[in-house]
Write a structure and sequence with these properties.
This protein is mainly β. The protein contains 2 helices and 14 strands, in the order ααββββββββββββββ.
Length: 272
Amino acid sequence: MYSLHKISVSVIFIFLFSSASGSDPYFPAAGAVETGMGWSCVMKPGFWSSFHNQALLPFNPSAAAGINYHNRFGISELATKTAAIVVPLENAGLGLIYSHFGYRDLARHSAGLACGLRLSEKISGGIQADFFAEKTAGEYRERRSLSFEAGLHIRLSEQASLGIHVFNPVPETLRHDRLPSSLRVGAGLILSSELKVSAETEMSTEGGPDIRAGFEYDPVRNMSLRGGFSSTGNCFCFGVGYELKPVQIDLGFSTHDRLGISTAVSLIFSFR
């Protein structure tokens, strides 16, 4: 029989399945940097681009490997564990990702292989193939799905950029699984060498629109302070990061108006 703790976890798990990407395990909240900025990052280059916009992969300056642990509300059964490898090429970038969400009775594994390419001086694009394996209690214990996602990045000027990302853009009549679809559109602005701001919106078939905004401030060399907001769950976020070459360490925190505080920590190792 289920313990009271397992029943509570299962109820929260089901609640999260109906939320937008900040909580939905189909969209792993990878990267403490992105968590600290309220996941307003569809236009922001960074190591975790394969989870947010594959068009940003060509902007990674060196090969790198990273791990991320996102603990929802202090409950280990609701944690997301992610890992990624990024390899830059001439005018391109490759990404390999893996993610695990949940616990023994309710879990989802996902893996992806991505490629991003500079299409012109101001435009880059990317695409990723995804594999999902879901395990749940009950009659249908395992489900497997294949899908893809794609992104576009446009540099509007030296200070402004635009990001667009679509996940599972498959017509409903052709679907053979319950994977949701989503569209993210956002813009970023460099206000100074120390301050960057961003804003984006996401539409998903699993829920209503999510509005996000964030900022990143670098008060001293190698250190960053971050803050953000996501309208889903009235989620306020903040974070801090420090780069001690070749390692980058980031912490991110997010709140939920009913479920409490979640914590994310990332380690990125660069091979320069």
